[in-house]
């Protein structure tokens, strides 16, 4: 072994120690850098040379590789944990806002207004001719209707806000995919010429982590170093190209729906995790569900209150009535979709009473509503014709599709009872409420303008309170349209369901946090920088550097000795 070879051995030791010191120093410098993965230097012998008589000795050391310490399986689990955590937080935020809008633990809530409305009817039952109590019924009905409208408005605003959050999240996810495509290209170019691009890979992992908070993803790394990204089984970053994410809005039966699609081919995405997935799911199930339940509740409240009110009588009858609900096709059966009524009348009948005010003489006529599906069912034109045939009253269908009934002359007034068909309530004749759902529920102007029309009695008996008592009982009676729950039970059940969903989401959030913290601890133990360990490495490689320098000094002295001899 020549002294020149010895110099090369010492030189390789110096270079290797210097590189190792740089790796340790870089690790220490990035101890607080988010997403940084610890690097480890791998050293290997350069080979051997013959020093005589078959004896072999190494030729020094070389840097075999600088390895980025990362567990891809753990990274995938960590991204899944971050996705689940972000999804749960997003849904929790939406549900808490719904719960706040309902405010059922306060005094200004729907349950309170509903009870006060029925309590007003109960009080009216004690003194049915008291105009002040009649005014209270109308006032409480108006407060109830306005509160239901306010709930609908606030839930709709929350849905719009959620749509905005979905759009922002989708845009950020699309931007991240663009950035990932750029980093992918940089990694492929760098590793094709100069080994591993550790910093770029760390940056890509950080972007993938942020993307996983927005949408559930899985990744597949190609041999070139580029990664393909999938949501479910749908590729959203493929062969280094962003296939794009976009939000589509559609108007379905008057309601705006949103869905997430791939720009490249229009494929609809159904994200199961991440903020986007949770917001889309909360929008579809929690917010749309809340609005649907509120509309159904308001629809049944309107119909059931009107069914009772339209069959009762006030302190005076009607001279003229115009139906609150219009039909799309006056020739279509009233119960058909073609009629377009928001309420469903049934096969039955009702009685119309014509009272001569000057004499008190009253004539009752039964009007049949044939909706049994056999033969020709009753249409609005048929109903108008049947009522028009009654003495002292005229009926017609207005151009806007509403039924108009008017007494002949000022000496007659109109009233109704015994409506087994629900046609009066379905058409909005002699009703307390107008509208069809939470958006448009209101107290009928005819009643609010003339309190004497408020129907507190039945059987045309002066001072009778039967209708007021029937209205009071409605709060606890089962309603077919509400799964045979009463109005109060149905709303209470819905509020309880929201409260349970909030509680379950909070529990899930705590569980996800424990899992995520555990995964982060595992990642830190595997890929994070340990300051003590790196300090030991610094000392070891410093000693190695010093040893190699001393070795070179010895070799240099030996060469000087030889030169002196020469």
Folded structure, characterized:
By secondary structure, the protein is of the alpha+beta class. Among the domains are: 3-69 and 530-565; 72-310 and 476-527, no CATH class. Helix content is 52%, strand content 17%. It is built from twelve helices and 19 strands. The chain has helices spanning 3-29, 72-102, 110-126, 131-194, 198-214, 274-311, 380-388, 423-427, 445-449, 466-473, 487-527, 531-565; strands at 39-45, 48-52, 55-58, 61-68, 218-221, 227-231, 234-238, 241-242, 245-252, 255-262, 268-269, 320-322, 348-356, 362-369, 393-397, 403-407, 412-417, 433-434, 442-443. The strands form seven sheets. It has a four-stranded antiparallel sheet, with helices on one face. A three-stranded antiparallel sheet has the order 9-10-11. Helix 5 (198-214) runs parallel beside helix 6. The chain is rod-shaped, with a radius of gyration of 40 Å. The chain starts with a helix and ends with a helix.
Low-confidence stretches: none
Strand order of the largest sheet: 5-6-7-8
Q: How many strands appear in the DSSP assignment? A: 19
How many individual helices? 12
In short:
The protein is of the alpha+beta class and 566 residues long. The protein contains 12 helices and 19 strands. Helix 2 (72-102) packs parallel to helix 5 and helix 3 (110-126) packs antiparallel against helix 4.
Write the layout of secondary structure elements.
Blueprint (H helix, E strand, L loop, with lengths): L2 H27 L9 E7 L2 E5 L2 E4 L2 E8 L3 H31 L7 H17 L4 H64 L3 H17 L3 E4 L5 E5 L2 E5 L2 E2 L2 E8 L2 E8 L5 E2 L4 H38 L8 E3 L25 E9 L5 E8 L10 H9 L4 E5 L5 E5 L4 E6 L5 H5 L5 E2 L7 E2 L1 H5 L16 H8 L13 H41 L3 H35 L1
Antiparallel strand pairs: 1-4, 2-3, 5-6, 6-7, 7-8, 9-10, 10-11, 12-16, 13-14, 13-17, 15-16, 18-19
Helix pairs in contact: 1-12, 2-4, 2-5, 2-6, 2-11, 3-4, 3-10, 4-5, 4-6, 5-6, 6-11
């Amino acid at each position: 072994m020549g002294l020149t070879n010895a110099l090369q051995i010492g030189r390789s030791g110096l270079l290797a120690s210097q590189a190792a010191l740089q790796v340790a120093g870089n690790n220490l410098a990035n101890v607080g850098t988010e997403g940084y993965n610890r690097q480890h230097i791998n050293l290997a012998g350069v080979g051997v040379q013959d020093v005589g008589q078959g004896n072999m000795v190494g030729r020094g050391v070389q840097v075999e590789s600088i390895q980025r310490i990362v567990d891809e399986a753990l990274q995938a689990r960590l991204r899944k944990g971050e996705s689940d955590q972000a999804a749960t937080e997003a849904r929790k935020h939406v549900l808490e806002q719904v719960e706040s809008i309902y405010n059922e633990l306060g005094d200004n809530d729907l349950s309170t207004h509903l009870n006060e409305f029925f309590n007003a009817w109960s009080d009216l039952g004690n003194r049915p001719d008291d105009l002040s109590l009649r005014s209270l019924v109308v006032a409480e009905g108006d407060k109830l209707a306005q509160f239901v409208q306010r709930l609908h408005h606030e839930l709709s605003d929350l849905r719009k806000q959620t749509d905005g959050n979905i759009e922002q999240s989708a845009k950020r996810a699309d931007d991240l995919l663009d950035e990932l495509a750029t980093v992918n290209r940089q990694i492929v170019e760098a590793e094709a010429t100069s080994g591993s691009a550790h910093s770029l890979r760390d940056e890509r992992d950080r972007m993938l982590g942020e993307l996983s908070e927005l949408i559930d993803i899985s990744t597949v790394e190609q041999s070139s170093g580029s990664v393909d990204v999938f949501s479910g089984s749908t590729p959203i970053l493929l062969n280094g190209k962003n296939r794009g994410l976009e939000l589509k809005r559609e108007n379905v039966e008057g309601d705006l729906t949103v869905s997430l699609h791939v720009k490249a081919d229009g494929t609809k995405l159904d994200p199961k995790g991440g903020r986007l997935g949770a917001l889309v799911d909360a929008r579809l199930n929690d917010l749309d569900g809340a609005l649907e339940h509120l509309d159904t509740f308001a629809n049944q409240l309107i119909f059931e209150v009107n069914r009772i009110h339209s069959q009762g009588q006030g302190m005076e009858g009607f001279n003229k009535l115009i139906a609150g609900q219009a039909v799309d096709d006056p020739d279509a059966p009233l119960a058909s979709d073609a009629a377009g009524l928001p309420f469903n009348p049934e096969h039955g009948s009702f009685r119309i009473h014509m009272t001569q005010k000057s004499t008190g003489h009253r004539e009752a006529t039964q009007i049949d509503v044939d909706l049994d599906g056999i033969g020709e069912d009753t249409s609005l034109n048929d109903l108008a014709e049947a009522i028009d045939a009654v003495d002292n009253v005229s009926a017609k269908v207005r151009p806007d599709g509403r039924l108009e009934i008017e007494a002949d002359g000022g000496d007659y007034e109109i009233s109704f009872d015994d409506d087994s068909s629900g046609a009066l309530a379905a058409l909005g004749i002699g009703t307390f409420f107008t509208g069809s759902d939470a958006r448009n529920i209101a107290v009928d102007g005819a009643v609010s303008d003339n309190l004497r029309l408020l129907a507190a009695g039945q059987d045309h008996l002066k001072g009778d309170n039967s209708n007021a008592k029937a209205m009071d009982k409605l709060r606890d009676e089962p309603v077919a349209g509400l799964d045979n729950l009463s109005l109060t039970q149905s709303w209470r059940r819905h509020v309880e369901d929201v409260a349970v969903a909030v509680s379950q989401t909070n529990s899930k959030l705590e569980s996800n946090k424990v899992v995520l913290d555990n995964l982060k601890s595992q990642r830190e133990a595997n890929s994070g920088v340990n300051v003590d360990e790196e300090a030991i490495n610094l000392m070891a490689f410093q000693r190695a550097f010093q040893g190699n320098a001393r070795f070179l000094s010895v070799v240099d002295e030996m060469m000087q000795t030889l030169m002196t001899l020469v």
